[in-house]
Records
---
Amino acid sequence: MRLLLVEDDINLQQNLKITLEKYGYSVDVADNGEDGLFQATEYEYDAAIIDVGLPKIDGISLIKSVREQDIGYPVLILTARNNWQDKVSGLDSGADDYLTKPFHNEELLARLNALIRRAAGKASPIMTNGALSINTSSFEVSVNGEDISLSSSEYRLLEYLMLNQNQVKSKSALTEHIYDQDFDLDSNVIEVFIRRLRKKLDPQGDYNFIETHRGAGYRLRSLD
């Protein structure tokens, strides 16, 4: 999952980036609202975390501008302010949820996970597709109840495909949602990870979870 983090407190920004990357997210950062607005509208994200008190363009105005351009990925706002009016303003601007500073990273991760699931129409942290099951809270994957060990990159790829079942995703789209802006989009790394996933999830070829659409990309087909 690819995230945008707009936070002007550099220490907090870097700590959050490290934490989010530890849990498998790819994170682009900005430290002011002007740069954040450019990134928010220029690139595709699965979710954004935006501080309210930003320089150049405040967080509320940033979110309003994003929503006015019909960009609909979920937004979690961060605010150091405790009065309810600021929280209401954030939600009215188009944000989906908020956290008041200081907060525990575990709560941020849980809220972010829930926002991404809901945006994909998934209410439960456990997603199933036939014999395949993914727990997005514990990052556990199983097939027919047997645990499957995946690398963080393999898990991110599978989770993204699972959240977008029956949708064909190009290699470039998959790369953009799994890695940051500086990754080589011409790399064949997605092909390598797809081969590894097929070998780990379906070594006998019984399920054909992931289909190749030549010239278009890959699709995790629905088996439910």
---
Amino acid sequence: MTARALAAPGRPRRHDVLIAGGGLASGVLLRALHLHGGPPLLGLPASLNLLALTVMAGAELLRRTAPLAALALAVPALALDFCTGTLIATVLMFTDVVYAAVLYGPPAAARRIPLASELVSVLATAVTAAFWHNPQVLLIGIGIALVTVAPAWTGLIIRNHRDAAQTARLRAEQTALLAEMDRTQAVAGERARMARELHDLVANHLSAIAIHATAAQTLDEPAATRAALGVIRENSVQGLAEMRRLIGLLRDANANAGDEPAATPTLDGLEALIAQARANGAASGLEFVLDDDRRAAGAGTERPPAPVELAVYRIVQESLTNALKHAAPGEVRVRIADGPGGALAVTVRSPYADRPGPRAPGSGAGLVGMRERIALLGGEFDAGPEGGPDGSVWLVRAALPAAGEGAQR
């Protein structure tokens, strides 16, 4: 960065051109009015102070585009000005060049220039005092400090404030970006949760409606048609009630505080779920059995957490829905058991056979939803065909930690 500042200065800024032009014009006017510091030193012609003025004005043109190059030009120009009758315009432009070198220069220069200006002031005062024993030496030292130290430290203070403001702005932008990322992830997670709930709430009822509507169309028996229509009406009413409850929850965040709180499904509702599946699958030759070995063994007086109970309920509900759609006639067995460490193990076994097509259409989102539920709770999930003594079966297995460790992640 230093080499670029010295070798390839950019185009001067508009304000820098105005400062350089104003300083040059002021210096020429002061020289014309003979308002300069005194006679030249070392036998130099007085006209050279105009050269020093011009060089200093040229340094002002580079104050922001090449601040170190500007300082390199300004130092000998100031020395020449002192030796040829000082012009106040040249001195003032020098202070601005020092200020700009600290403010716009590289960080290393910003740290070194103030220290160098202090050292120059002390040495100049000491040398002057050694050769000229006069109280005015102190005034000379103060003047040198005003020309070098004061602009250098002013530039450093302003630079520090500017860097601090920039750092705060970057942190604010980073915080805003992280907040937007968190909001996006929260929205995506909530959408996925709503999709799982909507699918689990409605798919079971709509599948039963589709199956019995097909049976009512194909069977030419009044009694069977009336039974199918009864099942269709029952599932329609239940599905509509659950849809209304879900819509109410989405519309009103305080819906649970109303007169009819929305109950979260628990393991106690599995019996009713199996009974409903029996009614819906009777026409398809399906039998549904629930083995609750957890209760049969008298295990655990402590209830699992609500998220675990809800996940077990939804897994069983979706598995029964899939059985109604795809299972061959036979027994669908649901087993709930205690696993090691107080975990819950869920197994749903249904007859599996190649069929020309499902009894009701599906989207495949049910298995995705079950995997997501188990993953959120830190459990394990597996689903697929498996051979057995009674032929091929479709086996759904899930293991959920009783404490739901993953729910907090």
